[in-house]
Specification:
single chain; about 725 residues; alpha+beta; D-amino Acid Aminotransferase, Chain A, domain 1; DNA polymerase, domain 1; Rossmann fold; 5-stranded mixed sheet; 5-stranded antiparallel sheet
Length: about 725
Amino acid sequence: MTAPSPLRLTEIEELTLDEAREEHAALVAEIHHHRELYYSKDAPALSDADYDRLEQRLARLEARFPELVTTDSPTQTVGAAPSSGFGKVKHKVAMLSLANAFEDEDVADFVGRVRRFLNLSEDAAVAFVAEPKIDGLSLSLRYEKGQLVQAATRGDGAEGEDVTANVRTIKDIPHTLKGNAPDIVEVRGEVYMNRAEFLELNRVQAEKGDKVFANPRNAAAGSLRQLDSKITASRPLRFFAYAWGEVSAPLGRTQWESRQKLESFGFTLSTPSRLCDGADALLDYYREIGIQRPTLPFDIDGVVYKVNDLALQERLGFISRSPRWATAHKYPAEQAMTRLNTISIQVGRTGALTPVAELEPVNVGGVVVSRATLHNKDEIERKDIRVGDMVIVQRAGDVIPQIVGYVADKRPADSHPYAFPDHCPECGSIATREEGEVVTRCTGGLICPAQAVERLRHFVSRNAFDIEGLGIERIQLFFEQGRIRQPADIFTLEAREEQRIDRLVTMTGFGKKSVEKLFQAIEARRTIALDRFIFALGIRQIGEATAKLLARAYRTVETWQARMVQAASERADKREEKKPELVGEAYAELCGIEQIGVSVADDLTDFFREQHNLDALAALLEQVKPEEYVPPATASASPVTGKTVVFTGTLVTMGRSEAKAKAEALGAKVAGSVSGKTDYVIVGADAGSKAAKAQELGVTILSEEEWAALIAGH
């Protein structure tokens, strides 16, 4: 049996920037697809361990190529948008995900990062709470005056599904809190099923001829998200509490004290848990729980470590999708052998031809795997993967599911290397590969139906315009019939078909009520948040998180569009310049937005340099109205809300990371370069060119002490 190393660490080191960028894009698409399956459809194709390994590869790529960290990456976002079948609940405090650790070194790095961020010495004592990571569905419970008033799923972290009626049927969840609870408290935890009760549920389901669930997590998620609460009540759901959201009074000074407070309210906690000091103690706990894991009554996929001191947690704060003060240490996954039946080619909305391995379905640690992405032509050639091979499939590793390699002694005698297509399988156009890139792209552009349909599909997707009733089948049909060719056509469909609705019903096969509901859903989306509008356009590298950054920076669609057009014009005039500030003011401003950079700026300006894109955007804006971005209310009283700040030099009182995090928490925009739109430049020791640039432009320069005085009390 021969197979490359599953970790592929050395391969990341060998990637060129263009190769890394293409793999990054492929991983981002893969993760978003599986998030949709997991969070919104309760039908995951991967285990949690598989998904975590997919994100691990992405994180390694971004660590090796930091210019790829554009927040397009799912490492910067959480979950998936809530289902349209439930009412929506906006979380008062965001429900974030956790960063992951997989090796002992990752745990040591986590502890080290905590100490460095807090400017603590290597031997400074930092206590952590360690607890099992339950494999279930995240839930937030809101209590007012001790009474349960609302329950919501995590959703995309900012907005979840209202499942209050269903949650009231779960016996582990008190309707009234015991003891002296704060007037407002949001208790957060995990809905799950015990393993024995799950097996009994499946036995009963099978006897009745109903759906049998793949694992306890799927069963718990599917049971909680029933539109009929009677079904939820019939399922053996349980709840562990482990955290909190909004509270009107502190629960304690430490994580451990607060856990005990939750228990006093009447909640069950995830156990066995432990207070640990340092990485060695955390690893001892991890190994002990690993030994106990098969005998625990519930499924876990790892353990969680949290800084115990809540004051330190507040200082550490959050990155875009996870707290700096916590991490999840995952247990490893498994492998299996199966046959590669064929290699199919998918054409994405940017024209990329992506090879997909179609496998003989195989059970890998409880999940049936039948497909695996092969990324590109080079990936196939490097691994020498051939149709008919017996291959090793791993539900953990770089790409999930991943083909690790083939079994040499089982290769058919008549096998031959795979011939990658040189024409698009959808439109027949020539497929080319530009110098320096690893991806092969269809040259058909807008004449390629796969690209056009995929762009439209992205536009109406859940995290974009989220138009209920306009799924891929209808998009495909309306495109083929010529009814919808660009986004604006969606919003003129009713006017064009109003006098011929019976004809539309006849030609589409949809019922009249179904068509009327579709028109209502379209009409409801004529107003949309600016970040969702930007994301929906499908611009390369502009994911949800990047779209939010752009919305926050430019506030209105008119300002954003005008500045992008200007930046595109500047770049067209000075494409040879390597420094953004030498290209032009609007382009430099774009590049200076924290986490944007030149790579994303170039893709944005490429979009705005194409006249057909500008025409499509103008037509769309005649039909819809993106809302002005409004800064979070929590930052409204800050003296730096809406201000653009730049940090330079070595800070003394706090680390650079903590200073940036604090500024963003107060509503400021932290930029990486100085321009005429910069409000403050905060200079530490050994400040260099940025301080000189600020002085040249007349930007206000503050010392670290002056900055601290400005934000004092906020």
